[in-house]
Design goal:
Structural class: mainly alpha
Strand order of the largest sheet: 1-2
Helix content: 55-70%
Strand content: 5-15%
Distance between the termini: 31 Å
Number of strands: 2
Order of helices and strands: EEHHHHHHH
Shape: globular
Length: 240
């Protein structure tokens, strides 16, 4: 749930109310985390200098980032064919991945569980793709809405269907991410509340609760995997 953490009414802007929500706060934290990871990964941690130099032998963090970058690069080359879009796709993947992973920490907020953020991302990408398509293909861009060999009488109907299908991609892309993350977090919240009440019981109930607690840990691990899968699927569908 998106809640306001702080608000301010500015008299200079006609008493406009500015508020800081948990969604905005964690968005800044996620972006800061991504920048921090890329700024410090692969550098010599034993050095006390502010300007640390890169190590010749890559560490585990560097190998992990390089593997992620290579995977996204493969998707871009296979689906789009041009690596000029790689920085955007890679940044989008890392943003969604880190947002999903941070949301698994107790008492935090998952940005992608906000439908405004999820659909906002997908619609922003749709607008960008449309502008890019118009700039590259010019008026020929609209020919993609007309299948080849279509009879002239069916052109208006098929254009309408293709246009609806084109716009529906933005909804489906955002709703898929939103629904999967909300479902997983809701399940974890229900199970954690149930386990907390069970552990608060007597000794026998406490011992019997250890079995469902292992199931809870397994579901938590599955949710971590879902966080990665949803980020991967999102960028894969963006590239397709």
């Amino acid at each position: 749930e998106v809640v306001s953490l702080a608000s301010y009414n500015s008299p200079l802007f006609f008493n406009t109310s500015f508020s800081l929500t948990n969604s905005a706060l964690f968005t800044v934290l996620v972006i800061s985390l991504i920048l921090f990871i890329h700024q410090n990964t692969g550098k010599d941690k034993t050095s006390l200098n502010f300007n640390k130099k890169m190590k010749l032998i890559p560490n585990k963090e560097s190998i992990l980032l390089e593997s992620l970058f290579s995977s996204i690069n493969t998707i871009v080359r296979d689906q789009i064919g041009r690596e000029v879009y790689l920085p955007f796709i890679y940044s989008l993947f890392l943003f969604i991945l880190c947002a999903n992973l941070v949301g698994n920490i107790p008492y935090t907020f998952t940005i992608t569980t906000s439908i405004i953020v999820s659909i906002g991302l997908s619609f922003t990408i749709l607008i960008g793709v449309t502008i890019l398509g118009l700039s590259i293909h010019k008026i020929h861009f609209f020919s993609f809405f007309i299948p080849s060999g279509t009879p002239l009488a069916l052109v208006p109907l098929l254009v309408l269907i293709e246009l609806i299908s084109y716009l529906a991609r933005a909804f489906s892309l955002g709703i898929r991410l939103f629904a999967n993350m909300v479902a997983g977090h809701t399940l974890l919240k229900i199970l954690s509340t149930f386990l907390f009440k069970m552990f608060s019981g007597g000794l026998i109930i406490f011992v019997l609760t250890l079995l469902p607690f292992t199931l809870f840990l397994a579901i938590t691990g599955l949710e971590l995997a879902v966080s990665f899968i949803q980020a991967y699927v999102f960028v894969l569908l963006v590239c397709s």
